[in-house]
């Protein structure tokens, strides 16, 4: 089995930076997203986490960390304890 195939689907989990940027370029209401400072701190925690896969994805949520980290309603899904 290929290591870059999602467990839950047959899609490729390797996503190019351009695609992540396209997803993040969508306009989101200010009350749903965190400040730039909080966003950067969340990303730093994700990038340092051993559960950060493929340079884009969280092992526990399956989400693109750059997308998940933007939302006020989201948190770190690490079962050992949230890192943000």
Question: Briefly, what is this?
Answer:
This protein is globular.
Number of helices: 3
Helix/strand/pairing class, anyone? mainly alpha
Summed over residues and divided by their number, the pLDDT gives a mean of 85
The gyration radius over C-alpha positions equals 13 Å
Can you count the beta strands?
A: 2
Distance between the termini: 33 Å
Sequence of secondary-structure elements: HHEEH
How does the major sheet shape up? 2 strands, antiparallel
Q: Give the % helix.
A: 25-40%
Q: Uncertain runs with pLDDT below 50, 5 residues or more? A: none
How are strands sequenced across the largest beta sheet? 1-2
Can you tell me the overall shape?
globular
Strand content: under 5%
List key phrases describing it.
3 helices, 2 strands, 84 residues, mainly alpha
Describe this structure in words.
By secondary structure, the chain is mainly α. The chain has three helices and two strands, in the order H-H-E-E-H. The chain has a two-stranded antiparallel sheet. Strand 1 and strand 2 (57-58) form a beta hairpin. The longest helix has 13 residues, at 36-48. The protein is globular, with a radius of gyration of 13 Å. The relative contact order is 0.18. The mean pLDDT is 85.
């Amino acid at each position: 089995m290929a290591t870059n195939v999602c467990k839950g689907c047959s899609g490729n989990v390797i996503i190019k930076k351009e695609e992540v940027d396209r997803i993040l370029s969508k306009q989101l209401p200010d009350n749903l997203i965190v400040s730039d400072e909080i966003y950067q701190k969340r990303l730093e925690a994700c990038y340092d986490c051993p559960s950060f896969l493929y340079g884009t994805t969280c092992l526990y949520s399956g989400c693109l960390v750059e997308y998940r980290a933007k939302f006020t309603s989201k948190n770190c899904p690490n079962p050992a304890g949230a890192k943000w």
